[in-house]
Amino acid sequence: MKVAGFSFIRNAIQFDYPIVEAITSVLPLCDEFVIAVGDSDDDTLGLIKAIPSDKIRIIRSTWDDNAKAGGRVLALETDKALAAISPDADWAFYIQGDEVLHEQYIPVVKEAMQQYLTDKNVDGLLFKYLHFYGSYSYIGDSRRWYRREIRVIRNTGNVVSYKDAQGFRTKDNRKLKVKLIDAYIYHYGWVKPPETQKKRLRNANHFWNSSETIAQANAGVDTFEYSHIDSLAHFTGTHPAVMQARVDRLNWPFTFDTSQKRYSPRVRFLTFIEKLIGWRIGEYRNYKL
User: Fold this and answer.
1) What is the spatial distance between Cα 278 and Cα 19, in angstroms, rounded to a whole number?
2) Does the CA dihedral 99-110-164-34 come out positive or negative?
3) Which of 56, 173, 216, 251 shows the greatest Cβ crowding within 10 Å of its Cβ?
4) Integer Cα distance of 195 and 250 in angstroms
């Protein structure tokens, strides 16, 4: 069984993406890792080159500024990396620049890859998610956070990144048939110094919003206010070992009263149903179980 990892990145230092941790977290599962490094305003290329592994293969990329609408350029960059993996790889593991796989799940993922290796009815593996917010001590627990996403796909050459690169579909726009596994992706995109988070969001606005909306977002304070969130829960587990240095150097204060739930009546009812029977009504599912 051969496994290839793949991802893309740009301006990782400027926007404090844990891309090194992301890549190194999945390297134990991978025979190779392809990373598309976009033209950056910092030394992102040097950052990737400094990772001590001969498994990593870098491809240089220039982002298409005409494909920013709806975040489409993110999918295009994902597809560049996917297209560059070895054709004889059986599985392709996708990890984004703010996602990390905990080492405790490496055996789970490997076992699932082996279990479904010859089952052509399985196009990929579906992971559960933990979304950290504000600091490394809190996770999002409301309906606004997606619960699952595809991160391992069968390397058929017929799969492409979908919309803004959150998931995948076939080239003829069919949802992938997947198996849900008991492994979590740790998403750290919402844990950054407040001033860095503000800069990241200003940059991200260019991919989804009009110039007027961007101007409004750029106005006002220069730091992001983490307290404007509907609901959080305390995180009681451990972080991936590759993230520990980042966790240790967290240098901004953030506390949240986890008993408060800023829900509308509708969301409060839907949340009650979900907690009661485990069904998230109206959940977006870009896959087939």
Assistant:
1) 33
2) positive
3) 56
4) 13
What does pTM read for this prediction?
Answer: 0.94
Asked if 3 and 95 touch (Cβ cutoff 8 Å), the reply is no
Q: How many residues does the chain have?
A: 289
Interval 5-26: pLDDT, tens: 999 999 999 999 999 999 999 9
Q: Phi, psi at residue 139, to the nearest 5°?
A: -130, 150
- CB contact at 8 A, 118 and 215: no
The answer to whether 63 and 38 have CB atoms below 8 angstroms apart is: yes
- Identify which of 176, 69, 62, 59 has the alpha carbon closest to the alpha carbon of residue 126: 176
Residue 173 makes CB contacts below 8 A (sequence gap 6+) with none
What is the separation, in whole angstroms, between the first and last Cα of the chain?
23
**Secondary structure of the chain in the HEC alphabet?**
CCEEEEEEECCCCCCCCCHHHHHHHHHHHCCEEEEEEECCCCCHHHHHHCCCCCCEEEEEECCCHHHCHHHHHHHHHHHHHHHCCCCCCCEEEECCCCEEECHHHHHHHHHHHHHCCCCCCCCEEEEEEEEEECCCCEEECCCCCCCEEEEEEECCCCEEEECCCCEEEECCCCECEEEEEEEEEEEEEECCCHHHHHHHHHHHHHHHCCHHHHHHHHCCCCCCCCCCCCCEEECCCCCCHHHHHHHHCCCCCCCCCCCCCCCCHHHHHHHHHHHHHCCCCCCCCCCEC
Tokens of 137: 């001590």
Top-confidence residue, 130 or 274: 130
- Token reading at 145: 């956070």
CATH topology of domain 3-190: Spore Coat Polysaccharide Biosynthesis Protein SpsA; Chain A (3.90.550)
Domains of the chain by residue range = 3-190
Q: What is the mean pLDDT of residues 124-147?
A: 97
